[in-house]
Amino acid sequence: MFYDVEETKKIIELNYSMRNKYPHLFIDRDPDDDGIKAIRDVTELIPLPGLTPEGHKLLFFRLGDKDPKKMNSIEECKTFFMLADCRFTDLDLEEPTLRKVKESQETADAETGTKTENEIEDESLDDNIIANGEVQICDIDGYTLSHMARISFTILRMYMNFLQEAYPVRLRAMHIINCPPFLNKMIAIVRPFVRDEVYKMIHFHTEGIESLFEHVPRDLLPNEYGGKAGTVFELKQKWTEELSIKRSYLMDPKHWKTEQSQNSRRWYWF
Question: Staple partner for 141: which of 44, 54, 150, 178, CB 3.0–4.6 Å?
Fold first, then answer.
């Protein structure tokens, strides 16, 4: 919220109000539940390591199993928010990269002689090592109108409201790759749930994925897409293990439940 305390209070209140209004999605959850395990085989949702030159985190999504009968909007939504909550407990830069950034920063500051040792220590928490936004990449290869027909519009509305109003991330862009010929029909289904300012952030790559590399460094992508981040399987395994490690945290209601009196009535329409 760019250091605006009052706006920060509002987004925290809205975040928890929505969580408590939909406990079956945000509170009553278990990363080791059979339904969650099954949906992880259907969808591959992976935070990618590192930051772009602009300081953005990358979130990658694609279908792992293209059978529309295996889709489940509720389990998909629960999986996304568990992954997000788990991810927010980790550093935006992994330790080896973080050390390099600190060393480079300290060397530059020492050469200029403009900062004291204490100031260099404080610098370790500045915006140079904290993501200032998120870019989402969605590979919709294999999506059909049968997949779209199985979407729960109740869940979609709630998901988009949370993502656009209460998700503690600055969404910078969304890139849709491997678009099908019936893309316009897919857009028509989800467009009513997307705010105009968010829709303007969406880029549809209809002529292959080469145009994606104009916005996202190729090296940060999974190996299957010409990158060096690791295979989709390896990245998925890492986050599957992370969810299991943080299982007690994700399931402990003391982190997520609020008293009913704490939930502001002004957010009730969500």
Answer: 178
* Nearest-5° Cα angle at 249, 169 to 45: 50
> Among the residues of the chain, which ranges form H helices?
5-21, 23-26, 34-42, 73-87, 95-112, 117-123, 145-149, 153-165, 183-190, 196-199, 232-245, 247-251
Give how many domains the chain has, as a whole number.
1
Report yes or no on 196 lying in a domain. Answer: yes
Please give the Cα distance from 243 to 253 (Å, whole number).
16
**What backbone phi and psi angles, to 5 degrees, belong to 179?**
-70, 135
Any domain includes 213: yes
H or E element at residue 9? helix 5-21
Range of the domain at 176: 27-92+131-247
User: pLDDT per position in the chain (270 positions), as tens?
Assistant: 888 999 999 999 999 999 999 999 999 999 999 999 999 999 999 999 999 999 999 999 999 999 999 999 999 999 999 999 999 988 887 655 555 555 655 665 566 665 544 444 444 445 556 788 999 999 999 999 999 999 999 999 999 999 999 998 999 999 999 999 999 999 999 999 999 999 999 999 999 899 999 999 999 999 999 999 999 999 999 999 999 999 999 999 999 999 866 555 554 444
Is residue 270 in a domain? no
Domain for residue 183, yes or no?
yes
Q: Could you tell me the CATH number of the domain that includes residue 58?
A: 3.40.525.10
* pTM listed for this prediction: 0.84
